[in-house]
Design brief:
84 residues, single chain, binds iron/sulfur cluster
């Protein structure tokens, strides 16, 4: 199971995500990220922000669930290591 630590880094680095271009505050931070790292449109967030939905609609034919979750976790770790 994919575990999100709610570090908020994915939502602070959306400048390279075309699907979220309209949400970029101009510094790579999503306009919907709250001060406590929550999403203020969580129930209506874009598909690209929804790990489970993206697996179903885009990645399930290419990866097992375990592989996909591991790749997501590696992406999170990469973001977290880049800020240290
Ligand atoms: S970078 Fe990963 S761990 Fe951090 S909030 Fe985003 S999904 Fe969660
Ligand atoms: S819409 Fe929500 S989940 Fe998506 S990047 Fe913005 S704050 Fe994060």
């Amino acid at each position: 199971m994919f575990r999100c630590s709610r570090c908020g880094l994915c939502c602070r680095n959306i400048d390279k995500v075309p699907e979220l271009k309209e949400f970029d505050a101009g510094n790579g931070v999503c306009i919907h990220l709250t001060e406590d790292n929550m999403c203020d449109i969580y129930s209506f967030r874009p598909d690209i922000c929804n790990v489970d939905k993206m697996f179903e609609i885009r990645y399930k034919d290419f990866f097992t669930r375990e592989e996909y979750e591991r790749l997501n976790e590696e992406g999170c770790k990469s973001l977290q290591m880049n800020i240290k």
